[in-house]
Amino acid sequence: SPWVGLRKINISYWGWDDMSPFTNTTLQWLPGEPNDSGFCAYLERAEVAGLKANPCTAKVDGLVCEKPVVSPNQNARPCKKPCSLRTTCSNCTSSGMECMWCSSTKRCVDS
């Protein structure tokens, strides 16, 4: 399942990676979701497509992100790579404070 850039910010608030609020209009949660099993939202493509909460360390099938409409003369900015997909300490910690490197597990995790 791909990660869609949506994460749990606090106990009752889900927001996009750019911290804008999730309004539950375009994408819908699957029945029984979000549950307390995770802080990241993944697109589930079973019988019915929808969002499912999973741990941010779950294996992902890529990512889905929003890109602004650009004219042919502009370049779209690249999607931010989630912490769980960063595989080295240097690429984990190089882009701000959202990720931290865990030496014992050799994994990049959300800070």
TrEMBL record:
Superkingdom assignment: Eukaryota
Domain C-type lectin, first and last residues per copy: 1-66
GO CC, one annotated term: membrane
SUPFAM superfamilies with a match to the protein in the record: C-type lectin-like (SSF56436)
Keywords in alphabetical order: Glycoprotein, Membrane, Secreted
Subcellular location(s) of the protein: Membrane; Secreted
InterPro entries, per the entry: C-type_lectin-like, C-type_lectin-like/link_sf, CTDL_fold, Plexin_repeat
Main location: membrane
Similarity comment: Belongs to the true venom lectin family.
Record protein name field: C-type lectin domain-containing protein
Species of origin: Micrurus corallinus
Organism classification: Eukaryota, Metazoa, Chordata, Craniata, Vertebrata
